[in-house]
Design brief:
Number of helices: 1
Distance between the termini: 20 Å
Largest sheet: 8 strands, antiparallel
Helix content: under 10%
Order of helices and strands: EEEEEEEEHEEEEEEEEE
């Protein structure tokens, strides 16, 4: 696997790049500018471990096609730690995942690097509604690994917000077929501002489904499910507590535990 990391500017020109067989490392000795895009590419699909922002933890994922991440500025940045994408020197790296990493039991939904334009590094989350289109309520927040649930708004309280839409749905696309047997949900719990869901349905790409029943809590809630091989799942039929006066339920994190096939 040959990997390359490239930073392009708003005009599409290359600002910095590096490549290598099995791994690539790039030191970008300049401040990011609006319109900059970070790109990770490979000559073949495969599993990678990468750190494309040195203030974030490394990410494991399936690189199916070229990955692009627009460096966030303004309103888009507030869903990340204030440390992210700042300063005038940046270390970016990626490498082919090792066999032990690929075979490990893990949260297969985790991708801190996910974004709306992500079409290459899986998993990827998307939804049919995000509150007011604001970054702090985007679907990507629900798979970034942050389970802080006692607030709402800018980091560290970002979440998936449904804009009070009873037909809201969120999908996690794994980009390949995986085996999963456990789901973990962290509901947002900024009570009394928030409501909470009593029940939800998870529909899987194999045509099966699971009904999930929650309790009122901001702690992770774990559910063992029948093991199945799927390429995606969709969270839907979100039933909020009708006795709670708040109209604002939200999801902080969705974890999907299992293994690669």
């Amino acid at each position: 696997m040959k990997l390359s990391i490239t930073i392009t500017g708003a005009d599409g020109g290359v600002r910095a790049s590096a490549s290598g067989e099995g791994s690539a490392r790039l030191v970008h000795a300049a401040a990011y500018q609006p319109g900059d895009t970070i790109r990770l590419e490979s000559d073949v699909p495969g599993f990678v471990v990468c750190q494309l922002e040195d203030s974030m933890a490394p990410s494991y994922g399936y690189l199916k096609a070229g990955f692009a991440l627009e460096v966030p500025f303004g309103e888009k940045r507030v869903s990340y730690s204030p440390k992210c994408f700042t300063g005038d020197i940046h270390l970016l790296w990626g490498r082919e995942a090792e066999s032990g990493e690929i075979s490990a039991y893990r949260n297969l939904a985790l991708n801190p690097l996910d974004s709306h334009i992500n079409e290459g590094l899986f998993p990827h989350a998307f939804a049919n509604v995000e509150t007011r289109g604001e970054s702090v309520f985007a679907a990507r927040n629900a798979i970034n690994g942050n389970i802080t649930s006692e607030g709402h708004g800018p980091w560290p309280y970002e979440s998936w917000g449904i804009n009070q839409n009873p037909d809201a749905e969120m999908t996690v696309d794994f980009g390949r077929t995986v085996s999963i047997d456990r789901l973990v949900f962290t509901l947002r719990a900024d009570f009394p501002h928030d409501n909470w869901w009593k029940r939800a349905t998870v529909r899987f790409s194999d045509g099966s489904s699971e009904t999930i029943r929650f309790v009122k809590s901001g702690e992770p809630q774990s559910f063992d499910i029948a093991a199945r091989e799927v390429s995606s799942l969709t969270l839907s039929e979100l039933i909020k507590d009708e006795d709670d006066p708040s109209p604002f339920p939200a999801l902080v994190q969705l974890e999907c535990w299992g293994r690669e096939i």
